[in-house]
Design a protein that fits this description.
571 residues; alpha/beta; nine-stranded mixed β-sheet; globular
Length: 571
């Protein structure tokens, strides 16, 4: 008996000695003692997390002996997957400044572009127009395809990852131009080929924005044909639907028809009921979407957590006057007879087009982005104020401003109810997108005012919406910013804290995360985000940007890389 016990004890001692001689586990990054919210909606838990290169390699109670080049003490902090911006317009701001500070300081690690317009494919005329229509940010167009543009951004250097839908409007302009007519059979075939190529380059699907000319000229059949191509590559159809106001319900039905006929998942960009008289329609729209989901259609939506939207004065004027593109629009507005007709239609209720002038009213239209130096002092004024100052009607003033600025004039429209915003935010199939650029609060960006959603969307979603408004638990808010959009986009290795997933991390103080941007003073960073990692590289440490630019192209399920290509969702 004694002998057996002695052997057993000696064996234990030997094992302990061998363990003591083994080198401690070593990682590139070790996050200690954080409260992990893994993105799935599961309850928070205290654990460590380890990263090697750009991947999460361990999650749990890691040995005290473990070592790392960088150890982050997350005691008292939330450790979550990096946030996904489902609707980003950082396409140009990232060219100017790849740090994407307004978003990175909120925990965003992936910017998703492509609301109807995408930065490729381009023909020579489109390249020229892209240069001519530039505002404060100036750049050369050295790419042709969408894939080349995304690679251009990464080669230039960006802090967040980037991905894009191919724009239905973009491929239409490529082949049809700005004419109000259906494409010929040959043109439609070339449009479909352009979508196919973009999908093989890694586009996430096809995106449309149907209130704007020339997208407004596309019929449902055309959109179904393009969506079918995206579906063949397991992509998504995503749409700023044809009407968010008087014909909101009909526009939702069109999206459902496209999803059904093309056999494709579909998402509604910034789901809203625009205009006070339409607020009551939201509940019926929610019921219709949930019925479609119950019938097997994969329908989702995204929102920004504000009662105002932002676009241009083009959304306040009828689409017919914009046929032929910007120059033709401005030329028509210089015709007194056309101006009278446009002014009359701007003030006349119609179901033929969505009229944001009537939906918001001149008092609810905030002018925020001009090209003309002489007009920049009007930044932050309402259309009603400028009209009174000029002694003109608001509609005449809007027409004058488009002509004088030779642009669509960036405008914020107050359209939604707070109650509806809260209702949408709590829906389990709704994610979040800023619908804005990702500026820094410095330099050229200060020459115009963005919507405050550029600086506050994601902090508001995990901060006030959880703490003050109690719309959802924190773990649900995180899910709606991480695994929900990742699954919607078909990304296989982002959006969760799990071994093998990309090390995109947002580490924040749940009690302090807060947006500060306002409509009057939008260039104010959110606070409470402590550390952010993109592909394992810290881009935010202790609340300050590190200057690192580790962002990659995130490609969709249809990517046809070389024979050694990684799985979908990786570079």
């Amino acid at each position: 008996m004694w002998r057996v016990t002695s052997v057993a004890c000696l064996s234990l001692v030997a094992a302990a000695l061998v363990g003591a001689c083994e080198p401690p586990p070593r990682y590139d990054v070790l996050v200690r003692n954080g409260t992990l919210i893994d993105g799935t909606g599961a309850a928070p838990r205290t654990a460590d997390l380890a990263v090697v290169a750009d991947r999460i390699v361990a999650v749990g109670d890691l040995p005290e002996r473990a070592e790392a080049d960088l150890v982050l003490d997350a005691d008292g902090l939330i450790v979550a997957p990096g946030f996904i911006n489902m609707l980003s317009w950082a396409t140009e701001s990232l060219i100017e400044d790849g740090r994407a500070q307004s978003d990175v300081r909120q925990g965003v690690t992936l910017e998703v572009f492509g609301e109807g317009f995408s930065m490729g494919p381009l023909n020579d005329a489109m390249k020229q127009q892209l240069v001519e229509r530039q505002g404060d940010i100036r750049y050369d167009v050295s790419w042709t395809t969408l894939g080349e543009y995304l690679e251009f951004l990464v080669e230039r250097g960006v802090s967040p990852n980037v991905a894009s839908f191919v724009g239905a409007t973009t491929v239409r302009v490529h082949e049809v131009g700005y004419d109000d007519r259906p494409p010929t059979a040959e043109e439609l075939e070339r449009m479909k080929q352009l979508v196919a190529r973009a999908m093989e380059e890694g586009a996430l699907g096809v995106g449309s924005s149907l209130i704007y000319a020339p997208a407004f000229y596309s019929d449902t059949a055309e959109l179904i044909e393009l969506a079918r191509i995206a579906a063949a590559y397991d992509g998504l159809y995503i749409s700023h639907i044809r009407n968010e106001g008087n014909r909101l319900e009909e526009a939702v039905e069109e999206l459902l028809e496209i999803a059904r006929e093309a056999d494709i998942p579909a998402e509604i960009y910034h789901l809203k009921a625009a205009g006070r008289e339409n607020w009551s329609k939201l509940e019926r729209v929610i019921e219709r979407i949930e019925a479609a989901r119950a019938d097997g259609l994969e329908i989702t939506a995204d929102i920004y957590p504000y009662t105002a939207g932002a676009t241009g004065l083009d959304a306040a004027m009828p689409p017919w006057v914009q046929e032929g593109g910007h120059d033709a629009w401005v030329e028509r507005l210089n015709d007194p007879a056309v101006r009278r007709r446009v002014a009359r239609e701007m003030t006349t209720r119609s179901d033929a087009w969505e009229n944001l002038f009537l939906a918001a009213g001149a008092e609810g239209m905030l002018l925020v982005d001009f090209k003309n130096e002489a007009l920049k002092p009007l930044t932050g004024r309402t259309l009603a104020e400028v009209a009174a100052e000029r002694g003109l009607s608001p509609e005449e003033t809007a027409i004058e401003l488009v002509i004088e600025d030779d642009s669509r004039v960036g405008t914020i429209y107050f359209l939604m109810s707070e109650e509806n915003v809260h209702r949408k935010a709590a829906l389990p199939w709704v994610s979040f997108g800023s619908d804005e650029a990702a500026p820094s609060a410095e330099g050229v960006f200060l020459r115009s005012n963005p919507h405050p959603r550029a600086y506050g969307t994601f902090a508001r979603a995990v901060g006030p919406f959880v703490r003050q408004h109690r719309l959802m638990p924190l773990e649900e808010a995180v899910r709606k910013l991480t695994s929900l959009p990742a699954e919607t986009l078909g990304l296989v290795d982002r959006g969760r804290l799990a071994v093998g997933y990309k090390a995109d991390l947002a580490i924040f103080d749940a009690a302090r995360i807060q947006d500060h941007a306002t409509y009057a003073e939008p260039h104010q960073y959110a606070t409470g985000m402590v550390h952010v990692l993109v592909n394992g590289v810290p881009v935010l440490r202790h609340g300050e940007h590190t200057g690192a630019l580790p962002g990659e192209v995130v490609r969709g399920p249809g990517w046809r890389g070389d024979d050694a290509a990684p799985e979908a969702g990786t570079d």
